[in-house]
Amino acid sequence: MEELTIAFLSSVRFENDAVIRGAALITDVQTKPLEFRVTAPVHPTNFQKTLYGDILTEHILVELITIPLLKALSQKPDIVVVRDPLFLGANERQDVPIVRVFKDGEARFTGNNKVEQLTSIGGKYEPILFETSKSLEAKLPELRKQLSEVFSRRSLLEPFDRIETALQQVHTQKVGE
Q: Which regions in the chain score pLDDT beneath 50?
C-alpha cells in the first residue's frame, strides 16, 4: 500500500503586508519533509488593489500561490492541509482535496460548511477542527481517515510553524527575486 502524502500549504506577508509568499511542504504521514516549494514574492500593485478590492488576497492565495505550487510539485499529494480559509477556494480549480485545520474558537470559513473534530489518540494533541469546501463535504469521511492517520502520530498544526520559519529565511535571503 502506498503511503499517504500530505501537502501543508501556507503563506506569509512581509514588508508591512506589501509582499506575500507562499510555500508547500510535502510530507509523509510522520510529517517528515519529502519536498518543499516556495513562490516568488507577490507584490500587489496599487492598481491591482483598486481593481480586485476585497477579493485580492483570495485571488493571490488561489491563483498565484496554490495553483502554481501544486502544479510544480514532483510528487502529487493525497491531501492538502491549510490554515487560511481563503485557500479553500482552490478546491474548484484542481483535483487534490484541500482541508482547513483550526482550533476551536478560530473563525470558520464563510458559508455553512460542515465542521468536524479530530481528537488524537490518548489526547497527545489538543483536539482540532477541520472543514473543506461545500463541494467536497461528501468526502469528509475519507478526509477524516487521512487526517486521523497523521494526527495519531503528529500534530497537524506544527508543520505550519516550520513553513513560516522557512519562508522567513527564504525571504531574508531574497530567494526567487
A: 1
